[in-house]
Amino acid sequence: METAETPFNFFTVGNLTRIGNISAMTLSELLAGLEQCSDASIFHHTFQTLSSHHFLTEGFSNDFAQWVLADANRDALAEQLAALDIRDYSSLAALRADLCQLVRDFCKLHPEFADQSALEPFYFCESIEVALPLGLTARSLDEFRVGVTHLSHSSFYFHFISSRLRLHLRTNDFSHWLADGLGLITLAENVNRIDIYTNTLDSARNKLLRLMDRERRKHDGSADREPHPAG
Amino acid sequence: MTEVQTANRIPLDDYAAVIGAGEIEELRALARPLQGRRVEMVNSTAVGGGVAEMLNRLVPLAEDLGLLFRWDVITGGEDFFQVTKSFHNALHGAPYHPQPRDFDIFREYQQRNLHRLPLDVEFVIIHDPQPVGLIEDRTNGKNHWVWRCHIDLSHPNPTVWNFLHSYVSRYDGAIFSSPEFARQLPIPQYLFYPAIDPLSEKNRDLPPEFIANVLSRYQIDPLRPILTQISRFDRLKDPLGVIRAYRIVKRYFDCQLVLAGGSASDDPEGAQVLKEVHRAAEGDPDIKVLELPAWAPLEVNALQRASSIVIQKSLREGFGLTVSEALWKKKPVVASAVGGIPTQIIHKHTGLLAHSVEGTAYQIRFLLSHPEIAARLGERGHEHVKENFLITQNLKRYLTLFLSLGGAV
Question: How far apart are the first and last CA of chain A?
Answer without folding.
Answer: 26
